[in-house]
Amino acid sequence: MPDPADQNARAHAEDAGQPQRRRRDLRRADGELTDVRTGTMPAVTPNTSSQPDAGQPATTRTSWAEAAAAADEAKQATPVPAPTRPPASAEPAAAATTSARQSDSAQQVPPMPADAPSDTPAFRRSRPTVADTIADSPMPDFISSPGLFVKEQKPRPVGGFRGALYKLTGGAWNLGPGAKQRQEDELARRISRQLQGSYNTAVLSLKGGIGKTSTTVGVGLTLAEYRGDAPCAIDANPDSGDLVERALGEGIYQQASPRTITDLLKNIESVDSLTALARYMHHAGRLHLIAGEQDPEVSDSLTAEEYLRIRKLVSSYYSVALTDCGTGVTHNAMSGILQSADNLVIAAGYAVSGAKRARSTLHWLASHGYEDLARNAIVVITDKDEVSSRVDKDAIEEHLAGICRELIAVPHDRGVADGDLVTLDVLKPETRRAYKEIAAAIVDGYR
After folding, report:
1. Cα angle vertex 256, ends 421, 415, to 5°?
2. Domain range list for the chain
3. What is the pLDDT of residue 90?
4. Nearest to 308 by CA among 277, 282, 333, 272
């Protein structure tokens, strides 16, 4: 019968060799312990069996060398992962018996599969790093964040005391633009608004000689000055309109052997590009114009269908078009003009007859199916012929302002009243500002 003391010593040698063998199978990888056989980091659990229970006799342990030798022999005999070490028993005999049973069963039990790598990180940083802070911070919107990395500068003042001070100090003293310049800049912004599609504004009146054509030219030149795309003006007056003469001057127009809207209609099928269309147009700076027919017998024959063909062609190349109409609303082309118009400019004057006809025009439009055009119309009162003090200008303005979207007054200006060439350079600042207000109101109506 084997000696119990020998069995006890052998059991404790195997028991002591198990953690040592596990320790020898661990290697360091990137500064962390890794199991060589499984490639995973071992789970570390507190060993409560290393502390002897109070009142129980302490278990005798072998030396490190003896435990290592016993572990090598056990590894060569049976390459099976060591079972979990049981807690120390109070009875040495019971501990020996348990160790012997574990040694015998180790030969029969197949190896346990290695634990799958855990998704839980081995460690966690207590505070974020600089890289984490940068990665979590939102990227700034450089387009909508002016002055993000540079100081925002005041706009440069133009004219007046502020502009003079800016020039004298070489820009060192910049008080910024005054109230008047800010208003001018706002008008320019409204005029230059980018548009999607093509729009048409008809300029009409029931009475001639009250500033209809001069308004078309002045507003067209203003649009050409502030917009990025060139506007187009069409002379659809059946009574030998003079739109191009007012924009270019009669002498230059006659020397150019002008082509008219009639010539364009005859060859409209062959016009398939802006270059081809330019052969039938005239240019006053960046304002492109289509001249009206000068022969009264031919000009009166322009129909609504023909005008719509012209309008469709122009819409392919221009985002803004102005149509200078005749002095009536019942001629052949008028139905096509109103059908394709996005808004209207009604020309009026301070004379009593001119104010009454402007009101009659709005009433006729509202009663013939063009109520929206009448409601959103822009009435332009041009002080072309100075009237006597008996005429109450304020009363006329108040009356017309109540039946339209906006009313704008153009002051008396010799550059307009003479009925000759209209150029922005010779107009008064107040007149130019009025044309800018009209142009801004027109673009505001394009929706």
Report:
1. 5
2. 155-191, 194-444
3. 46
4. 333
Task: Name the one residue in this structure whose structure tokens are 């548009």.
Answer: 195
Handedness of CA 365, 367, 373, 377 (dihedral sign): positive
* Cα–Cα distance measured from residue 231 to residue 23, given in angstroms and rounded to the nearest whole number: 88
Contacts of 311 (CB under 8 A, 6+ apart): 200, 234, 321, 323, 336, 340
Q: How far is CA 314 from the centre of its chain?
A: 28
Residue type, 268: I
DSSP string, 385-401: SPPPTTS-HHHHHHHHH
| Distance between CA atoms of residues 82 and 111, nearest Å | 10
Residue from 402, 410, 404 nearest 439 by CA: 410
Contact predicate 168/309, CB 8 Å:
no
Dihedral angle of Cα 220, 373, 240, 299, to the nearest 10 degrees:
120
User: What confidence score (pLDDT) does residue 219 get?
Assistant: 98
Average pLDDT over residues 308-327: 95
Q: Which letter does DSSP use for residue 303 in this model?
A: -
How is domain 194-444 classified at the CATH fold level?
Rossmann fold (3.40.50)
- Report how far residue 4's alpha carbon sits from residue 207's, in angstroms, rounded to the nearest whole number: 134
The pTM assigned to this predicted structure is 0.65
Cα 375 to the chain's mean position, in Å? 32
What proportion of the chain, given as a percentage, has pLDDT over 90? Answer: 41
pLDDT class for 217, splitting at 50, 70, 90?
Answer: very high
- For 205-342, where are the E strands, in sequence order? 232-235, 282-284, 287-290, 320-324
Coil vs helix vs strand at 128: coil
pLDDT in tens, 66-108: 666 666 666 555 555 555 555 544 444 444 455 545 555 445 5
Number of H helices, E strands in the chain: 19, 10
Contacts of 422 (CB under 8 A, 6+ apart): 214, 217, 218, 221, 246, 247, 415, 416
CA distance 215 to 434: 10
Say how far apart CA 150 and CA 247 lie, in whole Å.
45
pLDDT band at 277 (very low <50, low <70, confident <90, very high): very high
Q: Which residue in the block uniquely carries the two structure tokens 């599969």?
A: 113
